[in-house]
Amino acid sequence: MEAFALGTTVGVVAAVTTVGLAWLLLRRHTRVASRTGSATPGVDPTPALPEPVTSEDLARRGLDVLRAGVMLLDPDDYVLFANPSVDRLGLTREVAGRTGIGHPVLRSLAGRARRSGHARDVRLELRRAAAEPLGVRVRVVPLGTGHVAIEVEDISEAQRVARARRDLVANLSHELKTPVGALGLLAEALLDASDEL
Question: Which run of H or E residues covers position 188?
């Protein structure tokens, strides 16, 4: 009886071990297949775990997709972080191997915000060499310890549209003044002639 029990126990252990090894091999094969793209038919591949994403990565990705330029300056006006829109707008320059703020007006706004401790919102035109001025809306926010965040939104197109609208209204009013004035004179002449009759 003991021999039978021992044999049964050995058989069960061998069966469990075989099933366990088969399961491990199948799981390993599925992982390899899911990475290489060649899955075995009828086998549900184990989904690959996504790379861990930190909140800093998400914040950087979020800032990178913004149309507005966003940059973080240190106390010496060197750029610690800038999204791709800052480069597109041409707001930085290289100074002694470091990236600095590229426009004196922005540097002045950053200094004023540091000294006052208050955020500043302004609209202005940034003059650029060999290019038309860039109309921007700028928000400068002091973050303490001399650091400053700057958000720059390109509003050049909106300014062009507003300028074209003003020019159109001015031209129309100027062009209509002459015929309206002539009609007024004719009306007065007709009134004077009717009085005489």
Answer: helix 156-196
